[in-house]
Each structure stands twice: as C-alpha cells, then as structure tokens.
C-alpha cells in the first residue's frame, strides 16, 4: 500500500490495485479511478473541485478543559519485570514511594468531583506499577467516591490497567462490585509473554494470566468492558501471532490496543510493525469485516472519526481533561511523565493553571498540513519526549505509523460498501427523474 | 468510470454486522478526546 497527497487530498493505492481518496477536512472517503494517481485533464479538474469543496455535515470535537479522567497511580511497584518497561524499569518511575496515600488520594477525588459539571462523568483510573497489588486501597477509594456522589447528578466510572496476573477472589470482587472497565496488558502467547514480560521471580506470567482469565470470565457480565493492551517494538514485532493468540483466550475482548513502544526509534522495526498491522487488518476483515477491524484501536480511531464526521484537534487530553497523580500526589499530564520534574503541573489539589495546555495539539505540533491531522489529533507527547527529547517535537516514525494505519483503515472502509449497487440505484433514479 | 464515487452515510454496507459497527463507531467518534489511547481510555463510553 502507498499513498500520496495531491492538492490537500490523500490518494491511496492498495496492493490489490484499488484506489481510494480521502478529504482531510471534510473527512470524506471516495472510491477513485486509477487515473487519480497521476491526474491530468478532466480527472485533475474533478479532484480539484473535490479538494476545494467544504462539507456542511462535518463537525469538530475539542478537548475539554474540565478534568474528566483522574488517573491515580496506586502502586509504583510491580510483580513483573518487562524488558521494555518505561516506568523506571521496575514500575517505580524512579520513586521510593511504592503505595498511594489513602487520605491524600481521597482529597484529590473530592476536589476533582467538586469541580466537574453536574451532568458530566469523571472516570477514576487506577494505574501502576501493578494496581491490583493493593486492592484494599482501591476498594476504599471506590467506596469513598460512591459516597461523595450519592444523591448528585454527577456520574462516576472506574477503570484500571493491570498486568492480569493477580485475578483472585478479592480483586475479582472489587472489579465486579464497582463495574470496572479493565484493560489487561498481554503481549502474546507464552513464547513471547514469558520472555518480554516475565515475573520478577522469573516465573511464567502467561500461565498466571490464563488461569486468571478463566476466573475473570465469570464476572465479565458485571464489568463495563474488558480490553487488551499489547506493546510491540524491537522486543517483539509479531502482531499477527498476538492477534491470533488473543482469539484463543476465553474472553472476547471489546478492544485490542496494539501499541508501539514509546521509546523505540528503530525505522526497520516501525516498518515491520506497520506491515504486520496491515496483515492483521486483512485477517480481521476476512474474519468479521469492519466490525472486527474496528475492535483494533489503531483502526477504530480513524474509522470512528470518519463515520461520525467529527474532526479531532488533540490526540489526547493531557493536562486538560486528563490528569495523572503519582503515589506522592504530584500531578502530571500523562503517566509517562511521572517522576520528570519538568513536566509536573501541580500537587494534590493544586493544579498550576499556567502549566496546563491551551492550544490544540495540531497547533502545538505544527500538523496543520498533514492529511491525517483530524484522525490523529497531533500526535503523542510521551512518544515525542521519549524519542525526540521534547513533547512538542514530532516523532516522524510515529507519524508514519499513524498515517499508514489510517490509510489502511480507509481502504478497508471503502471496500465495505456496496458501491456498484449504489451507483446503479442512483443512475436508475436519475434516469427515472429525467424521463418524468 | 467516474473519477470520484463518494461514500455516504446512507449507503448500504456489505455485511449486516458492519451496519451495527457503524452505528457504534458513529457515537464513539462524536465524543471529544478525553483521555489517553495509551491507557486505552479513548473508547466508547467516555
């Protein structure tokens, strides 16, 4: 698959000879003729007309300045020791404070609940290290939150990201009682998982996860969703095997997030990841069409924007709608910035307003001329910082991954329609109208 | 062949399951960006 830009449009050619066009601001997708690849004459004129057209149905989604997600680092310690761990190599983010302070966290929850609009929802995310190392602390914070919001219009949801090795009666009851959204980090089958995500004691983590998932199935109807987070990069590029392995597990996950490691700067690895993801997309389309393809986050994001005809202007809500607290109560815009004093934006309930972002990330990262800007939203600050040393200096490999995968999603989207039938119907309707 | 055949939201999809997916994605896509994809928070009910 390859793509090129032409007068604001993106023209995509897939390996099977299909040509698809994408309008970056109208978020329109079109099947286009092969002549569009090197347009001249009437083809050129038609493309120019499309490029200069403005949709009257597209809308914009801007990131809220109201905090909607409070992510609390419950534990800065982990029972695994992953090869590529970006959290200080051991889940600590370089901090000696391993556990969140209950009373401080309660004050934070109270503050952010008080500051959310009456009809809006605050999601409290429990992160680590491994958060399920401290289920009693999480339960206390959930109970406290429910108590605070009882009798108000304010909505609350709870979520967590876990390595999936600690599903036991106590943690399962916790997740069930508070209807958690659970994200489980799994990189692949035992051949991959036990090499790149081994337990600290050297034992197999995949065996612990598979045993735990059998128990998680029983409470699955009580959870708001269960999804997967897998990390690829130089340590593992075999996305296809991971995708196939996940189908063998006893849970049908609502979403599969096949991330690329933040700090990985290897162009060959990026290319291999992209090709593997393109292959995964083909398998997914074969298996279950667009419905299955859109289970994979990297394809779901561009597809959801195109289908909703909604342009995004920021990749994430860092420092604005999303606030991260570490175990000491220091506040950051992103979990990957924890422990970096230059990125600290407050402490406990004191948010330093001048350090919160005001511009969109498309503006901040100078993405105004990129064809995928309203599908991507300006890129990831954590990736930029890890690879380029500054959160607003673009990582061009990230851009390549994003654009190639968006183009892949667009091509499959275009192929999901009965285009010929539509044309015939329109032509018939047009003829009938002319005859009448 | 006509150069451009735009896809419209009213057009029929090949698979019935995709129609359902389209409806779900439409709702998801209208929301502003609230969280972080790294944390998989960028999802349906946010």
Characterize the structure shown.
The complex is a heterodimer of chains A (436) and B (46). Chain A is α/β, with parallel strands linked by helices and 436 residues long. Chain A has helices at 41-52, 102-114, 135-149, 169-177, 190-196, 205-219, 239-247, 267-293, 297-308, 361-364, 373-376, 381-388, 396-415, 419-435; strands at residues 2-6, 9-13, 19-23, 28-32, 59-61, 69-73, 121-127, 155-162, 181-185, 225-232, 255-260, 310-312, 322-325, 330-332, 346-347, 350-351. Helix content of chain A is 39%, strand content 17%. In chain A, the strands form three sheets. Chain A has a ten-stranded mixed β-sheet with strand order 11-10-9-8-7-6-13-14-15-16, with helices on one face. A four-stranded antiparallel β-sheet of chain A has the order 1-2-3-4, sandwiched between helices. In chain A, strands 5-12 form a two-stranded parallel sheet. In chain A, β13 (322-325) and β14 form a beta hairpin. Chain B has one helix and one strand, in the order βα.
Structural class by sheet pairing and helices of chain B: mainly alpha
Low-confidence stretches of chain A: none
Q: β content of chain B, as a range?
A: 5-15%
Average pLDDT figure of chain B: 77
| Largest interface in this structure | A-B, 79 and 42 residues
Helix content of chain A: 25-40%
Order of strands in the sheet with most strands of chain A? 11-10-9-8-7-6-13-14-15-16
The number of strands of chain B is 1
Q: What is the oligomeric state here?
A: heterodimer
